[in-house]
Amino acid sequence: MGKTIRFGIIGCGLMGKEFASAAARWCHLTVQAARPEIVAVCDVNEASQKWFTDNFDTIQFTTTDYKELLKREDVEAVYCALPHLLHEQVYCDIIRAKKHLLGEKPFGIDQKANQKILEAIAQNPEVVVRCASEYPYFPACQELIRWVKNDKLGRIIEVKAGFNHASDLDIHKPINWKRTVRMNGEYGCLGDLGIHAEHVPFRLGWIPKNVYAVLSDIVTERPDGKGGMAACDTYDNGTMICQCADKDDNEFALYIETKRLEPGATSNWYLEVTGMDASVRFYSDDPNAFHYLYSEGKNQAWSRVNIGTKPLIPTITGDIFEFGFTDAILQMWAAFILEVEGKETAFGCFTPEETRISHALHTAALKSYQEKRAVELDLTPLPADSHNL
Ligand SMILES: NC(=O)c1ccc[n+]([C@@H]2O[C@H](COP(=O)([O-])OP(=O)(O)OC[C@H]3O[C@@H](n4cnc5c(N)ncnc54)[C@H](O)[C@@H]3O)[C@@H](O)[C@H]2O)c1
């Protein structure tokens, strides 16, 4: 039996289950990576702990108070998937308890909360902290990244990235915490979906200098699930146009769209990069396909190649078979564990520093929309004394 890392899960909802399921099929990986063992779970709603205790006999401890979980010496690392309002307090407490953390986006409900989390990280450098973002781990997306890194595109013309849903078009869908400013944050859909779209562009060095944003709150109330209606006060859709520069300092436009009202979309994550020599795109709607185009002559044609299962972190699955969402989750988890172990990964998880850029972008986007103008990103580094706060 190889090494294990003992995990606690805080937040036993949709994403808590995804992690637990990925941990349960760790044997799928053929790489040497410590196995996550779930030893403790926490949720304020006791009923949501049951699925975990029914399926994992490694769980020694359940609680409704996350501070009790953090006191346990057998918990070495935590996956935390809670509403955005709670990120600042709970992430800071996890980090100060010296547990490694994979936290969820947006990593703080706003920029101030994000800064507090980054300060806690700065004070506890021995703890490995990352933010969840799984879509870049689709093999076809990794192929896109290789094309960019290998300079096959020539001068960049434009980059378009997005994450779109359609389910909110159902106006009878009851409200949940993600549709309220109090719990989800003022960023609305940008905070909920933005990091997904930003991971690859940021990692490739495309950091926005400024942003012009158009945000829309189209569905302003929803059924409250108790027979009445409740205010749905978050932005449903957000489009950001940013000015970026490539490694040779040539400017190009980066479009980022995050939408809950995009007719026909079901978690459609996409990235398209056009260049003077070649262009590439990946859509999670066509999850096994990598699309490319050579910019030759007057007319061009897109080609589509089926990549299959050629993941970054090797698995038992034959490469002729399809790759899916839960495989991407497993890849992200393997990348996180390798980072905790201090091992090399070709594409690591979204970093705390990248969450800082994301918050600078979303904060500037809110200002841009309010003032109807392009706004520069404030990327001032944290104060030098933040280690000593
Ligand atoms: N990576 C992804 O693809 C992805 C997808 C969806 C959501 N998310 C993120 O995951 C996080 C959680 O979202 P979700 O969809 O799993 O939400 P969810 O509502 O399904 O689950 C949240 C859980 O937290 C519990 N909870 C609330 N307050 C708590 C507290 N004080 N202590 C302990 N438990 C508490 C709730 O009872 C609930 O079970 C959010 O940050 C969200 O942005 C990520």
UniProtKB/TrEMBL annotation:
Membrane-spanning parts: none
SUPFAM superfamilies attached to this UniProt entry: Glyceraldehyde-3-phosphate dehydrogenase-like, C-terminal domain (SSF55347), NAD(P)-binding Rossmann-fold domains (SSF51735)
Secretion signal span: none
Residue ranges constituting the Gfo/Idh/MocA-like oxidoreductase N-terminal domain according to the UniProt record: 5-128
Keyword tRNA processing: no
Enzyme class of the recorded protein, top EC level: oxidoreductase
GO molecular function: inositol 2-dehydrogenase (NAD+) activity; nucleotide binding
Alphabetized UniProt keyword annotations: Oxidoreductase
InterPro entries: Gfo/Idh/MocA-like_OxRdtase_N, Gfo/Idh/MocA_oxidrdct_glycsds, NAD(P)-bd_dom_sf
Pfam families, A to Z: GFO_IDH_MocA
EC number: 1.1.1.18
Name of protein: Inositol 2-dehydrogenase
Species of origin: Robinsoniella peoriensis
